[in-house]
Specification:
Blueprint lengths: L7 H9 L5 H13 L6 H8 L5 H12 L3 H11 L5 H14 L10 H4 L4 H14 L5 H9 L7 H17 L2
Helix pairs in contact: 1-2, 2-4, 3-4, 3-5, 4-6, 5-6, 6-8, 8-10, 9-10
InterPro entries: ARM-like, ARM-type_fold
Organism: Gordonia desulfuricans
Protein name: HEAT repeat domain-containing protein
Amino acid sequence: MTDPSTGPTSARIASALSADNPSTRLSAALAAGTDPDPSLIGVLVERSGVEPDFFVRDMLVWALTRQPVDLTVPHLAEAVRSASPQMRSQALHTLSKIGASSTWGLITAELLHDPDDDVARSAWRAAVVLVPDDRRLWLADELSTECGRGGSEVRKSLRRAQLALSAQFR
């Protein structure tokens, strides 16, 4: 059943986002971003939390960045508290792409130290983008406690985050 507030195009896009074919889902995400419709924000956030295809997830993030920030952020705030690691990771990634400094409060120490490597890596990237000047030292301390975590890709992500943060101190 579709939301009565959505129009026929929005209903078609929402339906296509859960199609079996990844190309159909990719086209639907592209359509959602090309002609932003706030009634699709919830569907886009939910889909990004379960979407198996990287390219579709990337397009979903892009589509979310095209929506009104004040309507999108509450959905992402809920998603960062989800039990699903993919949902948390995608919400954090989207927040980093939106880049609204007002969302800094959503980046918690728990997310920076999340047991899921993908969530932690997304939190590190988002934190570096969103950190206010007066919280940089705190963030540097938090990131330093992650040294030695995970495999080479995780360590590389941490180094990138630390380098990006150190560049802000200049």
